[in-house]
Write a structure and sequence with these properties.
4 strands, 12 helices, 3% strand, NaCa_Exmemb, mainly alpha
């Protein structure tokens, strides 16, 4: 309970003065503790509200704070801010679709042999992610009203409304119309789905009280604010380090995305180890959707007062990586059961993305 409060205190004291290595070291340690705290409190809330609401709460909470971080860094100005939103969102998509998914499938399969999930629900999530990514990150390269991977004002407004509509439609499907498609599933020895997992008989403790869940929800929010705030404190050091190493500026977005998505990554891996890969996939694909469906509308509104261009279109290398990821993801989810190889394939794609971000 004390970690989120400590993280906020460190954030306040380090916000104006963080140029000494000892301060940055403390910020780094507290950042790691804040990430672990966010995971703990998210799991408490998830245990109270059940799936898929638990994974949804963490995905949306992290993404809302991530959007705030993107806007803050864009307001700092500079020559590279025009592509910051694109690079950060794309990094989040690649980390979720390949990193979180790959690690969850690999750990789950190594521990349980085969892992199973509902292909219908997961497939609809993947389809929504593909539509969002294509509309916001690929299509700007092929329109003619603006140049350089940019949307015109009217096109940006349309993309923002369409993105938000897709995200809301999926939320309605996930939480109201077809909630059972996104619940952890039971399976036989061959990995074939046999029904929904009986969460009351899996050895877990009783759900926390309403008061405990409310307290954890508040501490979750404090932890997430601390994670992003401390990441913002560390961002100048990250930027200077990236520049001194001669890496492209897009690497900054990758590093920030990794830090922000750390709570979801840890939560997904823990669920995979408990044979709840469906929850892990809910976290991964839900985070990818939220990263686009909430970020683009917010950036569209922010462009009212932000100056400079907004480049959303991916470059050629990024598009190729996205296409390969989409194709592999489709093959992964189509049968509803996978073994360790699929997880390893996704992790190789993540490694390729990270390497090509450093050496394009």
């Amino acid at each position: 309970m004390f970690v989120p409060i400590l993280a906020i205190i460190v954030l306040v004291f380090s916000w104006m003065r963080h140029d000494h290595w000892s301060i940055l070291a403390v910020v780094g340690v507290i950042l790691v503790l804040a990430v672990l705290s966010a995971v703990h409190h998210a799991e408490v809330v998830a245990h109270k509200v059940g799936e898929p609401f638990g994974s949804l709460i963490l995905a949306v909470a992290v993404t809302v704070i991530e959007v705030g971080l993107i806007v803050m860094l864009m307001t700092s100005g500079g020559d590279n801010t025009s592509t910051y939103a694109r690079d950060t969102v794309f990094a989040a998509v690649m980390i979720t679709l390949n990193g979180i998914v790959g690690l969850s499938l690999l750990i789950g399969a190594l521990k349980h042999g085969l892992v199973s999930f509902n292909a219908a629900g997961t497939g609809s999530a993947v389809a929504t992610v593909i539509a969002l990514a294509g509309l916001t990150l690929v299509l700007p390269n092929y329109t003619t009203s603006a140049h350089g991977g940019q949307y015109s004002s009217s096109q940006l407004i349309f993309a923002a409304i369409a993105s938000l509509a897709l995200y809301v439609a999926f939320l309605f499907t996930q939480t109201v119309r077809h909630r059972d498609f996104f619940l952890p599933v039971a399976s036989d020895e061959h990995g074939r789905m046999t029904g929904l997992l009986d969460l009351d008989e899996d050895g877990h403790a009783e759900p926390p009280s309403t008061g405990e869940a409310a307290l954890s929800g508040a501490l979750l929010l404090v932890s997430l604010i601390s994670v992003v705030g401390l990441a913002k404190v560390l961002s100048p050091t990250i930027e200077s380090t990236v520049e001194s190493l001669g890496f492209p500026y897009a690497v900054v977005g990758v590093v920030i995305a990794i830090l922000v998505l750390a709570p979801e990554s840890i939560a997904a891996v823990r669920n995979a180890g408990r044979d709840r890969v469906q929850t892990s996939l809910n976290l991964a694909y839900g985070s990818a959707m939220a990263s686009i469906g909430l970020t683009i509308p917010t950036i569209a509104v922010a462009m009212i007062w932000l100056t400079g261009p907004l480049e959303l279109g991916l470059d050629a290398t990024q598009i190729v990586l996205l296409v390969i990821t989409v194709f592999v993801t489709g093959l992964t989810v189509v049968q509803g059961r996978v073994y360790a190889l699929q997880g390893f394939v996704h992790l190789v794609l993540l490694a390729s993305f990270l390497f090509l971000s450093i050496q394009p």
